[in-house]
Amino acid sequence: MNKYRELFKDIYSENQIEFNANMSEHIYFKVGGPADVLLIPKAKEQIVRTIKVCKENNIPYYVIGNGSNLLVKDGGIRGVVIKLTELNNIDISEGKVIAETGALLKDASKIALEHNMTGLEFACGIPGSIGGAVFMNAGAYNGEIADVIESAEVLTEDGKIINYTKEELNLGYRTSRVMEEKAIVLEAVFALQGGEHEKIKARVDDLTEKRESKQPLEYPSAGSTFKRPEGHFAGKLIQDAGLKGYSIGGAAVSQKHSGFVINKGGATAKDILDLIAHIQSEVKNQFGVELHPEVRIIGEEKN
Ligand SMILES: Cc1cc2nc3c(=O)[nH]c(=O)nc-3n(C[C@H](O)[C@H](O)[C@H](O)COP(=O)(O)OP(=O)(O)OC[C@H]3O[C@@H](n4cnc5c(N)ncnc54)[C@H](O)[C@@H]3O)c2cc1C
């Protein structure tokens, strides 16, 4: 740990560094072992310097946003985790929402509503950060980041800060160029249209109601566990396979929505991974369909 303290002491103040950080406190699933070091930058410059130090010293690093699409394994993460949620400024200018990487998508959606701007209603209930949402091309209810993003500022793997236009971001179903290139999103600009406050609010209220009635928001999860397989819905396949409510240890297929694996209490990452594998094998055996996790799985097994 002293090695890390020495390497990062000029970049971070004491309260921005945590050693042996309990990752279950930083991800929605509330499972997972410790990260060697957790760094919490408040400025872009700190991110740039951190990556440089990691590369010079061959230290693995991983960026996280709000932890709502992550599963950290029980052995934790060797190296550095950079949590970006303290870079969370959101500005409005000429029909655009300009948000720093760690700002919450929900807050961007709320600010757009307050300024009578339409386009981000779909995002009102997605619990991720701007960076995580661009990385995943997050979407819901017929809307996705690709519909509204104008550009994103990113830090490339070789340490350059550049701007990608929407086209250059190659946003596809839960994929992006940022994901392909292991870049880090620093900021994003969304181009929205002017709209009527009441209509925007009605759409937000409607989507919130849909989400609250259909999703097991009372339990820790990472949202939809699997990507939508071509021509099917993951939740329906899982339900039809007879797995609704099925559990392994503290991990369970939600009774409310079979597309969600939840932590019903005291789950380990292994419980969740075992359940994911069981679901994949049942659905493959019964329907011949391969399910691929949407949730990002990181870290090491526990010995
Ligand atoms: C209850 C619930 C409901 C959900 N509903 C939806 C939904 O409707 N639609 C949807 O798309 N998703 C949904 N999700 C999943 C999740 O909220 C989104 O995928 C979100 O975009 C993840 O953002 P995050 O900041 O939490 O990312 P994290 O979970 O912190 O990270 C996810 C991935 O993004 C990468 N990443 C994070 N920040 C950056 C960055 N700045 N630059 C580069 N890479 C980065 C991480 O390395 C990691 O690989 C839901 C999750 C929950 C818990």
From TrEMBL:
Protein EC: 1.3.1.98
Residue span(s) of domain FAD-binding PCMH-type: 30-195
Keywords noted in UniProt: Cell cycle, Cell division, Cell shape, Cell wall biogenesis/degradation, Cytoplasm, FAD, Flavoprotein, NADP, Oxidoreductase, Peptidoglycan synthesis
This protein's pathway: Cell wall biogenesis; peptidoglycan biosynthesis
NAD among keywords: no
Key word Ribonucleoprotein present: no
Superkingdom as given in the UniProt entry: Bacteria
One Pfam family of this chain: FAD_binding_4
Cofactor names: FAD
Catalytic activity: UDP-N-acetyl-alpha-D-muramate + NADP(+) = UDP-N-acetyl-3-O-(1-carboxyvinyl)-alpha-D-glucosamine + NADPH + H(+)
Main location: cytoplasm
Top enzyme category: oxidoreductase
Active-site residues, Swiss-Prot/TrEMBL: R174, S224, E294
PROSITE patterns registered for this protein in UniProt: FAD_PCMH
Gene Ontology molecular function: any one: UDP-N-acetylmuramate dehydrogenase activity
Compartments where located: Cytoplasm
Function: Cell wall formation.
Family: Belongs to the MurB family.
PANTHER family per the UniProt record, alphabetical: UDP-N-ACETYLENOLPYRUVOYLGLUCOSAMINE REDUCTASE
Protein name: UDP-N-acetylenolpyruvoylglucosamine reductase
Organism: Clostridium sardiniense (Clostridium absonum)
